[in-house]
Design brief:
The structure holds 2 protein chains of 2 kinds. Chain A is built from 3 helices and 6 strands. Chain A has helices at residues 3-27, 35-41, 88-91; strands spanning 32-34, 51-64, 67-74, 77-83, 99-109, 112-122. Chain B is built from 18 helices and no strands. Classes of the chains: A alpha/beta, B mainly alpha.
């Protein structure tokens, strides 16, 4: 294959595959789980190091430096959530006993499951 | 017994380092998956020895595998250049020399790192300014407008891939492993697999060289700054030094790169012990298990690092002739095909079958610097742009 043709092929493949990935990611709808379902019903190991969406009630908010830690709970089942470098508009959304949908990466730290929060949405029950 | 931990860890690290495309972060993930930490828990220095040994030994497959057969590619590694000249043994020797000098330099600079991190470590402005500066430097290094546009396009493509896989990781486990393989290793391996190659017999003699003490120390010193900046790698440190010291020869660059790599690893562990900052995925994995990170005796840490590095360097030099013999007896194309298949199997077993799609996408992007004759370090914008967005 000639160099010019190969170059064109690579550019087209790179651009089109990236574009398709972008469209797919944009329209992809994450399934939202309650904290209880996520930790006890589903196999949460399938979601390890992946972005996931959880819904629950906020408890035990704690500010440490510029980071926010809280528990997201469904009943007595809770998962630790952390927001690094919390922005002002996020502070206005997260209060104790509010119902939130949290989107972030599910990870294990010091043998504890936790969510590194990316986005937060208020949920009206 | 500490000495048994060091020797045992070094031997395991030596064996793991011989596998191509196996990064220390992947090893941490595999240890976690196979429950290795439960079998041999709470032995921090054992796991440190593994990482030091693996890092040093990994220069052997780096020098011997994934070699493109075209010396004219701008982005070819100096080690590959030497391989194509029949001097792979000399290249590995230079890497070992760089590692030895890098370990000494890094251990001497640990107090300076402590001071630097206290001053600059949490300074977000410094971090994102440095990231932005390097990205802009990539573009404005080119003279012609068209070349600038090409570099900018590569940055945008790889940065977009980084945002889609690292910031929005819906589909992949361990996206870093998949995309780094696709961006950096896969294109060269594919070229090597499909192009006809003539057998290059590696010489058994090693050229004489006077040890570049100053350059190696400079490499360790620049690593101090690089380790403060998330998403920066040894390649960026090498570029910074090549700007400071013009006309670096291939030999000097190899020693420099080896020094920087091993120094970065030692600094990463030091930052984890003193400031609880994990700059390496392997350290994140260690901290997530029962391996104890607090109250580390730094004298013992230095002793462990030094002894395991020296032990592994001696191991590599002892088996060097055997490695060269195997390479001389085997066709390069066969080696590269085996390496590619092994790497694919490793990536798919860690990240799932969907990772094949991402390998394809990242390989297409990884080909862009090769076909346009640009430096492959530009592809590091895959990590740099998501990090920049985090700090803005």
């Amino acid at each position: 294959m000639e160099m010019k043709a190969f170059r064109l092929l690579v550019i087209v493949c790179a651009f089109s595959s990236l574009f398709l990935l972008l469209i797919y990611t944009y329209y992809y709808e994450l399934e939202t789980f309650s904290v209880y379902d996520f930790l006890h019903v589903k196999d949460s190991n399938d979601f390890l190091e992946k972005t996931t969406s959880l819904q629950g009630t906020v408890r035990n908010i704690e500010h440490r430096n510029e980071h926010l830690f809280f528990d997201l709970c469904t009943g007595s089942t809770c998962i630790l959530c952390v927001v690094f470098n919390i922005k002002d508009f996020q502070k206005q959304t997260i209060f104790n006993n509010t119902h939130l949908k949290v989107v972030g990466k599910y990870t294990i730290y010091n043998n504890t499951p936790q969510i590194i929060v990316d986005r937060v949405y208020r949920v009206n029950l | 017994m500490l000495i048994f931990e060091i020797i045992f860890g070094s031997v395991i690290g030596f064996l793991l380092g011989l596998f191509p495309s196996l990064h220390i972060n992947t090893i941490g993930f595999l240890f976690l998956s196979f429950g290795f930490f439960a079998i041999y828990p709470q032995h921090l220095f054992f796991f440190i020895s593994i990482s030091v040994a693996q890092m040093i030994t990994s220069f052997v497959p780096c020098c011997l595998f994934g070699i493109p057969n075209d010396q004219n590619i701008l982005s070819i590694f100096p080690t590959h250049k030497l391989f194509l000249e029949g001097k792979a043994k000399f290249a590995i020797f230079l890497c070992m020399l760089g590692c030895f000098l890098g370990v000494c330099g890094a251990l001497l600079l640990l107090p300076i790192l402590f001071l630097f991190f206290n001053v600059l470590g949490s300074f977000s402005f410094f971090i994102y300014s440095a990231l932005l500066f390097v990205l802009i430097m990539f573009v404005f290094e080119e003279k012609k407008l068209l070349q600038k546009m090409v570099v900018l396009s590569i940055i945008i493509f790889s940065g977009s891939l980084g945002i889609l896989t690292l910031n929005i990781s819906y589909f992949l486990k361990e996206p870093l492993l998949v995309c780094i393989f696709g961006l950096f290793a896969s294109p060269f391996l594919l070229i090597s697999c499909f192009k006809k190659q003539k057998q290059i017999i590696q010489k058994e003699e090693v050229d004489e060289i006077s040890p570049p003490f100053f350059l190696s120390f400079l490499g360790s010193f620049v690593s101090l700054f690089i380790i403060l900046l998330p998403s920066f790698s040894s390649a960026q440190a090498g570029i910074i030094i090549s700007k400071i010291k013009n006309n670096l020869s291939s030999l000097e660059y190899i020693v420099l790169f080896a020094s920087i790599s091993i120094s970065s690893l030692i600094f990463s562990f030091f930052l984890a012990f003193t400031f609880y900052k994990s700059r390496l995925g392997y350290i994140v994995v260690l901290r997530s298990t029962d391996v104890v990170f607090g109250n580390v005796d730094f004298v013992i840490f230095g002793f462990v690092v030094f002894i395991s590095a020296m032990f592994v360097i001696l191991l590599v030099l002892f088996f060097l002739d055997d490695f060269i013999y195997i390479v001389n007896k085997t066709k390069l194309r066969v080696i590269n095909v085996i390496v590619y298949i092994f790497s694919l199997v490793l990536v798919v077993s860690v990240s799932g079958y969907f990772s094949l799609v991402f390998i394809f996408i990242s390989s297409c992007i990884g080909f862009l610097p090769i076909i346009y004759n640009k430096r492959r370090v530009i592809l590091m914008s895959y990590i740099m742009i998501p990090t920049l967005l985090y700090y803005i």
